[in-house]
Amino acid sequence: MDIRRLLVVLGIALVLAGFFWPWLMRLGLGRLPGDIVIQGRNFRFYAPLMTSLIISVVLTLLFWLLRK
Question: Could you read off the pLDDT of 5-22 as tens digits, one per residue?
Fold first, then answer.
């Protein structure tokens, strides 16, 4: 895949994600079982493991389909 095409696709994906962000938050992304949140008195640690896994699978399928 040409780097220019990859950058264009990534740019379009970021614009679409920004546009659809309010609807994506309603799906519960970022608050799924498997996402780790540790809260203390003065800090908050957030590790979105399951959300990252789901996004990775979706993007992998998307790039696989675009490559064909």
Answer: 888 888 998 898 888 878
